[in-house]
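Can't paste images in this forum, so I'm doing it all in text. The chain is below; anyone willing to post the predicted structure tokens underneath?
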Amino acid sequence: MKRISIVFALTTLMAVCALAQNSTTTTDQSSLADYARKVRKDTTPKNKPKVYDNDNLPTDDKLSVVGPQTKPDAEKNAGNAGDDDQAKNDQAKKEQGLKDWQDKMTAQKSEIDLASRELDVLQKEYQLRAAAMYADAGNRLRNQADWDKQDADYKQKIADKQKAIDDAKQKLDEMQEQARKDGVPASMREQ
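Text version of the structure:
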């Protein structure tokens, strides 16, 4: 009997604790929700500054972030006409300068391409001559001195052409660096 009463007392105690925990959680949650509603009500848009974005930007009026206009409209319009012409002239000069840089770099790239093609032709001619020379053993024995002279000439021509290509590439790199320093955009330098 004592055991039954202890078990009954423990079961009752656990039920009371579970009920108390549920009511505390519900009270905390409802008080947290009430607090959030209260905070949301208390924030007023009067305290926040006006924020402009693409949706609420005025289209028919000017937006001044500096302050009121200081010049009369007539003076301002007269001054703007001269400024607009100057700005257009500056823009035209800048575009012409960019075009000049682009033309120079395009010409240099064309020179590199031409020299590379000439080098390829020289190398292929040399390979064909070497194949023909080594294919005929009799010709190789009869014309060994002549072959050595021609072989040296071709190798010198190939080395000279390779040096010309390297110099042209170095010049292009220097031009691109100078153009970068002059403010030419990367899209125009790397074309």
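The chain has a mean pLDDT of 79. The helical segments are 2-42, 73-135, 137-142, 144-181, 186-189.
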